[in-house]
Amino acid sequence: MAEYKRPGSEVEFQQNFAQKKPLMNASEAFYESSRCLFCYDAPCIKACPTGIDIPLFIKQINTGNTTGAAQTIYDSNWLGNACGKVCPTEVLCEGACVHTHQDVPVIQIGRLQNYATQNAISEGKKLFKTNSADKGRVAIIGSGPAGLACAAELSVLGYSVDIFEASSKPSGLTVYGIAPYKITNKEVLDEVAYLQSQLGFNIHYEHGITSKEQLDELEEQYDAIFLGIGMGPTSELGIQGEKLKGVTGAVEFIRELRMRHSNIHVPDRVIIIGGGNTAMDAGSEAARMGAKEVTLAYRRDKSGMKAYDFEYKLMISSGVDSLFNVQPIVILGEDKVEGVQFIRTEIKEGKLCHIEGSEFDMECDMVIKANGQTKYSAFLELIDGLQLGRSNTISVDENNYQTDNPKYFAGGDAVNGGAEVVNAAFEGKSAAIGIHNYLSNKQ
Ligand code: SF4
Known about the structure:
This protein is α/β, with parallel strands linked by helices. The chain has helices at about 10-15, 25-35, 45, 55-60, 65-75, 80-85, 95, 110-120, 145-155, 175, 185-200, 210-220, 250-260, 275-290, 310-315, 375-380, 415, 420-440, and strands spanning about 135-140, 160-165, 200-205, 225, 245-250, 270-275, 295, 320-325, 325-335, 335-350, 350-355, 360-365, 365-370, 410. It has a 5-stranded parallel beta sheet with strand order 3-2-1-4-14, with helices on both faces. It has a 5-stranded parallel beta sheet with strand order 5-13-6-7-8. Iron/sulfur cluster binds near residues 38, 42, 43 and 54.
């Protein structure tokens, strides 16, 4: 089990957050690609939400056509480089690889993907052809993976695209919300710059769309609008003590870490509350920032967690302990957090129940809540006719990602309730095709 020294410099930060999937060199890529069986009806393609022709790009790498490999990847997925690094490949393409049925390691598809795309990006290979942008104007709200994929596809289809982004950087959670050992800020930003330089879509930074007046203006000026707004801040637990100093949300914690690296201080004792992949990331990150005692607390047993098993194992291997069947009832402290009072839980007749009299206190200096994110429901209510579905996600026609207001399309976390970057990339691209069909049929 790893024990991390508190990083005092950028070099030490990078050591603690060494890339989980480092870039392959040419020999590694040649060897790894030669292990692929180039299966007929390849299960890895079916397991990829964007349907990348994986055996084809692996063959292209193996025959020295690295640029062709990058082209194959980008033909299906506009965020090919980011997805190679941040996709949970263990449960997608690599999890489906036929080698899982044999006693040999699976093909490292994600790393091969990065080998090809990183090569195209760093050498500035020209891969994309755009049509003259005269088919119409589309506004995109949010430059996360869904918005970027939608913008890229629309540019190829011949539309003029303006993305309105509230932050100062593109790519949403890919740059602000993913653990730093999965992808670096530079890799994310380089891929966006690469796409933008060839496809020409505009991104207006620090230009959030928040009011009815702004929406009316967009409706007047654009032929269609895509909502790639993602999700909001971490939800409240609804218990006493949540406003104490030292209590933060996982999304907010990871965002600060991604921006400030070794310049943030994580105290010695940290409790993470939650059981999803974000909780695992937050736990692993707190440990890598040098916290001495990091404990994950989850209200059900281990099997009830939404997190992937490999993410849980990664967190545990970073030195994090876990506590199951406990629910926080009070966050303790005067001005700043001093601990959490928990109660033990059990399942009775299918329901999660508190065990009476089982309360106990656990001391800590920081609490990170990873209990889900809020939705931008108040903003969405400003759009005429827009219907919200289960858990306040945006309802769309799943064939074209059009909302109940025909001018608006949507994709990504705001629609799927929080999935992977690769799902957002697929939905953004599908919505672009939906917008193109809608506008073509209107003429
Ligand atoms: Fe290659 Fe594995 Fe895909 Fe078969 S399943 S084509 S071996 S990566």
